[in-house]
Amino acid sequence: MGKKKRVVTRWRLLGALVLAAIGVGGYEWWQFIHWTPSRVQYPTQGVLVGARDGRASFVAFKAIGADFAYLEASDGAEGRDPWFARNLEAVRAAGLPFGALHRYDPCIPADRQAANFVTVVPRDDTLLPPAIELDALADDCPKPVSDAAVESELTTFVNQVESHAGKPAILKISKRFEQRYHLATAIDRTLWLSRDRFEPTYAGRPWALWTANSQLRSEAGSEPVRWIVAQP
């Protein structure tokens, strides 16, 4: 075999290997974006919905297996999900149990954030426990906020939200927030953790809710959604 022919053969072989790798990677990616945890292990599963998901169909979510839903409602002292009112009406019409989520801002006093939440979210005993998303850090606040102040203000906010809801809140803690403040064990509340595909362990104690797939694609719509499971 001549030198030129050997070079061509090597390039063809390399090309075949690259295409094979792309094919395997593409298949694994397709498997992931359509993956949900086993119903045998986790019988109760649901979805987190907000404005980013567009016009969500809760009837469709119910059809693909959602047993409950959480709706993004408020953010900080003034932020309000523009689709919350519409989603609230739609999820009720679909007959899915649901709860509301507030995105907490450690730079803003608890009283102002609680006022925003209670204005947006109706007082309703049928709602699931309120969820508080903890992801933003205080490192970039306009005025310095100590770690102790973050915990103190968050505790105040939790108490005010629970007073409005009439039930204990769920803390939706991200990995970076927990690594920074270590509040999963300091504040004794039910936990909601996140990690694609694999069970999260970063909180140091058991979780009740788990965002298992942050970009699930399904027949329910054209946009990916955040899929949640409940601990049996």
Characterise the protein shown here.
With 232 residues, the chain is of the alpha/beta class. It folds into two domains: 1-33; 38-230, TIM Barrel (Alpha-Beta Barrel), CATH 3.20.20.80. It has six helices and nine strands; from the N terminus they run H-E-H-E-E-H-E-H-E-H-E-H-E-E-E. Strands 1-2-4-5-6-7-8-9 form an eight-stranded mixed beta barrel. Helix 6 links the parallel strand 6 (170-173) and strand 7. The longest helix has 31 residues, at 3-33. The protein is globular and about 70 Å long. The model is unreliable at 18-27 (pLDDT under 50).
Indicate the CATH class of the largest domain: Alpha Beta
Q: How are the strands ordered across the major sheet?
A: 1-2-4-5-6-7-8-9
What count of domains describes the coordinates?
Answer: 2
Please give the number of β-strands: 9
